[in-house]
Input
Amino acid sequence: MIVRTRRVTQAIPQAVACRQTAAHIWGLRALTDYEDDWPIELAAPTHLPMPGCITYLTQLAEEDITEHQGIRLTTMERTALDCARWLPRPEAVAALDQFARKGVDMEALWHRPFNSWRLRDTLSLTDPGAASPRESWLRVILVDGGLPRPTTQIRVPLSDRVAYLDLGWEEFRLAVEYDGQEFHTSPLHQQHDADRRDELRRRGWRVIAVRRDVIPGKAADLLEHVANALIERGWRPGPEVTTRILRRIRAIRRRSSPRTPRRPRWR
Output
């Protein structure tokens, strides 16, 4: 993609790589499809009929444009704002978390004029502690579901090492961890995880492991499971919060369940 994007922006002076294309070039894990299949996203004042490209008609300010690896693209700050504004919320937060780790000042972005409250709400979810996009998605599911905002990278000293839990609530000694296939498939890693969680359990922690297939397909079950675990550990949500959680679980299940085909209406 980098080669393709460089070729396009060098050939067309008004073309500026933007959104997830720009995020990818900045070094983020931002694409939700194979790199070779991803269209080049361009910002330009007029439509650019280029094969393999998508043009977003916009007039960018000069301060929002820079060059990186020989490619003309939006700055990290502008790319972060575009991701927050246009991407689905889980993907937007995943991009923002990564930009925050690269040093983008999210508070300064939050205070930019003309930002909507929806955009600012997405920016406020940023947490540089997320170690992967799926961990970001996991946090969005829990927070949007009505649970208290979890802390990321919780430090827990063990007998011979220090464990860092993906996210959780130290007050209730409850953690939620994402088991990505790329890190947890070998027998050695699985044994290491089992030993680590056994010791955490002996120290009073409960760890809920989330497999790759849970996000987003089983998000409702995950939210219900974590909410019940928090309540068992002493969390006391009020009636309004409880109602919000239950509504969210029902809404997710409705969206994820296959729809019954509509019967034809004969005249």
In short: The chain has two domains: 2-124, 133-256. Residues 2-124 form one domain. The chain has a mean pLDDT of 91.
